[in-house]
């Protein structure tokens, strides 16, 4: 796996876990710049909806808060790659029901980035931005991240600047994926497995 892609996934999941820890029970959405086989102890069900990009949904099989908490605790770069690898995903036709949802969330990331080790850039004395600007004394005072995702019958729209359910596809019913409970979602660039957006819908 490309080291830049791995670093991207690791950073995204670190930020996601930090946001999740501070916003338990809330919807979460964040952006860093196929149906699943049973995996592990069968506490979750992965689903990948293929676009030019892919959308991966992870939801607890038993739909309980305890099982969802287990998934969130186990989530890291290694488990994300393992759960979404071709070895653990099987391509088959499904009847898929996911809720319409639109999330628009704004975060101030100063304390979060500090907790991940990014400290010097916020320090008036230690910051060194000479590689991007000839002006001396530059440093970051505030980092604001705003992103939104809109999932409806027409597809998924997502963008970032730093109830009802619908049927995605009508097929002969062989299996059904019904996302009527909290789930994690990831929009990724499939060829590189790079996460572009990630979030949690706490109240479908």
TrEMBL record:
Cross-referenced SUPFAM superfamilies: Serpins
Domain of life: Eukaryota
PROSITE patterns in UniProt: SERPIN
Pfam families recorded: Serpin
GO cellular component: extracellular space
UniProt protein name: Serpin domain-containing protein
Entry's family note: Belongs to the serpin family.
Chain ranges of the Serpin domain: 13-204
Any one GO molecular function term: serine-type endopeptidase inhibitor activity
InterPro entries: Serpin_CS (IPR023795), Serpin_dom (IPR023796), Serpin_fam (IPR000215), Serpin_sf (IPR036186), Serpin_sf_1 (IPR042178)
């Amino acid at each position: 796996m490309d080291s830049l892609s791995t670093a991207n996934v690791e950073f995204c999941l670190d930020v996601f876990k930090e946001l999740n820890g501070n916003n338990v029970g809330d919807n979460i959405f964040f952006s860093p710049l196929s149906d699943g086989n049973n995996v592990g102890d069968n506490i979750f069900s992965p689903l990948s909806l293929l676009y030019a990009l892919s959308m991966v949904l992870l939801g607890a099989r038993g739909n309980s808060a305890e099982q969802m908490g287990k998934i969130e605790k186990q989530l890291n770069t290694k488990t994300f790659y393992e759960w979404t690898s071709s070895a653990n995903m099987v391509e088959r036709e499904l009847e898929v029901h996911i809720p319409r949802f639109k999330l628009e969330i704004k975060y101030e990331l100063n304390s979060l980035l500090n907790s991940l080790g990014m400290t010097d850039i916020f320090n008036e004395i230690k910051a060194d931005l000479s590689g991007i600007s000839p002006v001396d004394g530059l440093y970051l005072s505030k980092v604001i991240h705003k992103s939104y995702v809109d999932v409806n019958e027409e597809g998924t729209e997502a963008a970032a600047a730093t109830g009802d359910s619908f049927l995605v596809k009508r097929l002969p019913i062989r299996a059904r994926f019904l996302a009527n409970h909290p789930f994690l979602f990831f929009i990724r660039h499939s060829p590189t497995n790079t996460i572009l957006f990630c979030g949690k819908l706490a109240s479908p």
